């Protein structure tokens, strides 16, 4: 089950074929796909069709994805999990025009709340290529820690690259979770 | 030319010699090869190497993709040589991977060709494969008799076809 998740600026919802054009436009950008393992470059409309049409409504939380829809704008990215031996592996991307506004922090916070509430998982895993400082900083905010280094293929670059492996435990997320602002009466 | 297709759970990519071990381990299983008319059984690593090296001479538009899963490596093959063909190693049956992989290859096929349809088929006693095709929008067109190498006898093959419009109606193309 992949329910709708609402945040202050975003709507996280299941992918659909209607997202193909925007996804293809935003992912056909090496500044984005060069940071991702499994997105080819160039990225064509049919690449988006292949990814979108393979989304399944009955997929478990550890194997599903959300489209990040910015209210008043449309799809601006995606985030979700791929099942790896029963563990959810987190992946995400945001279209370049929307970087630097805290949108992915907002999206991931909602996704982690949902994930830890609907599964028994005690941790999730993720990572980034060694040069991806923005992603490392983002994950650090949530309490991810480095667990090792590996080698991972980057389709867009056509190279095997050093990958920083990370992990977020349920406990670390609960401690680090960005808290909603409280209204204080004076 | 390198061409990879990424689905939610799988990656389809060109075969390489390193895949011979995984291919042989998947195909040296009569539960798999008995439904593949041209594949011998038993199936050795050398058979896989011969198949891989023969691919480079295949005509344009013919394509074989290795189906790869993050936590399992190469788990099967999807091929487009006039017809759609596919197999998955037995431990990976029953999760919808064949449908997911075949769909990706078909989106690719209808994208790079002007073809209005593509054929496929399955042994008459292979309901799982016919079910994969039904989900993708294939329709049964008839049947024929083929000689099965692994079974060493004639078998009845149900022939099917998928039109571009039926594939679109199933939600694979916009």
Topology, element by element:
The complex is a heterodimer of chains A (186) and B (174).
Chain A: E1 5-6, E2 10-13, H1 20-27, H2 30-33, H3 45-53, E3 65-70, E4 74-84, E5 87-94, H4 103-118, E6 123-129, H5 133-142, E7 145-154, E8 159-169, H6 170-176
Antiparallel strand pairs in A: 1-2, 2-3, 3-4, 4-5, 6-8, 7-8
Chain B: E1 5-6, E2 11-13, H1 20-27, H2 30-33, H3 45-55, E3 63-69, E4 73-81, E5 83-88, H4 97-112, E6 117-123, H5 127-136, E7 139-148, E8 153-163, H6 164-169
Antiparallel strand pairs in B: 1-2, 2-3, 3-4, 4-5, 6-8, 7-8
Helix pairs in contact in B: 1-3, 4-5
Please tell me about this protein's structure.
The complex is a heterodimer of chains A (186) and B (174). Chain A has one domain: Gcn5-related N-acetyltransferase (GNAT) (Aminopeptidase). In chain A, a hairpin with a 3-residue loop joins strand 3 (65-70) and strand 4. Chain A has 186 residues and is of the alpha+beta class. Chain A is globular and about 40 Å long. In chain A, the strands form 2 sheets. In chain A, strands 1-2-3-4-5 form a 5-stranded antiparallel beta sheet, sandwiched between helices. A 3-stranded antiparallel beta sheet of chain A has the order 6-8-7. The relative contact order of chain A is 0.16. The mean pLDDT of chain A is 94. Chain A is built from 6 helices and 8 strands, in the order E-E-H-H-H-E-E-E-H-E-H-E-E-H. In chain B, helix 1 packs across helix 3 (45-55) and helix 4 (97-112) packs across helix 5 (127-136). Chain B has a single domain, classed as Aminopeptidase, CATH 3.40.630. Chain B is globular and about 40 Å long. Chain B is of the alpha+beta class. Helices cover 32% and strands 32% of the residues of chain B. In chain B, 39% of the residues are buried. Chain B contains 6 helices and 8 strands. In chain B, the strands form 2 sheets. Chain B has a 5-stranded antiparallel beta sheet, sandwiched between helices. In chain B, strands 6-8-7 form a 3-stranded antiparallel beta sheet. The chains are: A alpha+beta (186), B alpha+beta (174).
């Amino acid at each position: 089950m992949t329910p709708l998740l609402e945040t202050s600026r975003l709507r996280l919802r299941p992918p659909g074929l209607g997202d193909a054009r925007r996804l293809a436009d935003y992912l056909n950008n090496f500044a984005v796909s060069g940071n991702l393992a499994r997105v080819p470059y160039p990225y064509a409309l049919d690449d988006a069709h292949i990814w979108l049409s393979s989304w399944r409504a009955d997929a478990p939380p550890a194997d599903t994805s959300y489209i990040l829809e910015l209210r008043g704008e449309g799809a601006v990215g995606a985030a979700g999990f791929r099942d790896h031996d029963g563990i959810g592996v987190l992946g995400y991307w945001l279209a370049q025009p929307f970087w630097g506004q805290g949108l992915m922090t907002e999206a991931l916070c909602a996704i982690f709340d949902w994930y830890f509430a609907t599964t028994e998982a005690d941790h999730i895993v993720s990572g980034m290529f060694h040069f991806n400082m923005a992603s490392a900083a983002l994950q650090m905010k949530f309490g991810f820690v480095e667990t090792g280094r590996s080698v991972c293929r980057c389709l867009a670059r056509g190279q095997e690259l050093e990958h920083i492996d990370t992990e977020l435990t349920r406990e670390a997320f609960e401690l680090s979770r960005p808290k909603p602002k409280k209204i204080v009466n004076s | 030319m390198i061409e990879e297709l990424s689905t939610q759970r799988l990656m389809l990519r060109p075969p390489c010699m390193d895949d011979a071990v995984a291919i042989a381990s998947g195909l040296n299983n009569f539960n798999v090869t008995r439904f593949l008319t041209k594949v011998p059984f038993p199936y050795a690593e050398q058979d896989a190497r011969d198949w891989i090296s023969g691919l480079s001479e295949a005509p344009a538009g013919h394509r074989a993709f290795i189906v790869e899963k993050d936590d399992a490596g190469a788990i099967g093959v999807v091929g487009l040589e006039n017809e759609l063909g596919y197999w998955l190693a037995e431990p990976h049956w029953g999760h919808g991977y064949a449908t997911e992989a075949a769909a990706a290859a078909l989106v690719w096929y209808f994208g790079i060709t002007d073809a209005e349809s593509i054929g496929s088929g399955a042994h008459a006693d292979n309901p799982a494969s016919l079910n994969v095709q039904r989900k993708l929008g294939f329709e049964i067109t008839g049947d024929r008799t083929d000689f099965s190498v692994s079974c060493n006898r004639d078998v009845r093959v149900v022939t099917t076809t998928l039109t571009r419009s039926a594939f679109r109606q199933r939600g694979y193309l916009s």
